[in-house]
Amino acid sequence: MSVKGQVVIPKDIRRRLKLKPKDRLIVYGEEDTIILKRLDLPELRETWKRISNIIKERNKKYGRLNQKEVSKEIAAYRNSR
């Protein structure tokens, strides 16, 4: 490990896992074990797409929320917790 905490992933492992420069990794640590997991951005894009579709359908049915309505819903949610 470098002074900056950087770690080199061996070339054969990068090739086998199809890791590319700029790929994002999540780091998990527990006791003396470190796990790196690739962050799958297409999965995040698909999730955002589903959320976006839900919002569009809601807006078609009820119209767009204004700032006052958003604030009211946030306050109601916080009070329910």
In N-to-C order, the SSE pattern is HEEHH
Shape annotation? elongated
Oligomer: single chain
β-sheet strand percentage = 5-15%
Largest sheet, described in full?
2 strands, antiparallel
Write down the Rg.
21 Å
Number of strands: 2
Low-confidence stretches: none
Overall pLDDT confidence: 89
Helix content: 40-55%
- Strands ordered across the widest β-sheet: 1-2
Distance between the termini: 44 Å
Q: What's the total helix number?
A: 3
- Class derived from helix and strand content: alpha+beta
How many structural domains can be distinguished in the coordinates? 2
Write up this protein.
With 81 residues, this protein is of the alpha+beta class. Helices cover 52% and strands 15% of the residues. It has a two-stranded antiparallel sheet with strand order 1-2. The relative contact order is 0.07. The mean pLDDT is 89.
Descriptive tags:
single chain, 2 strands, elongated, alpha+beta, 52% helix, 2 domains, two-stranded antiparallel ribbon
Topology:
Elements: H1 11-16, E1 25-30, E2 33-38, H2 41-62, H3 67-80
Antiparallel strand pairs: 1-2
Short description:
The chain has 81 residues and is α+β, with helices and mostly antiparallel strands. Helices cover 52% and strands 15% of the residues.
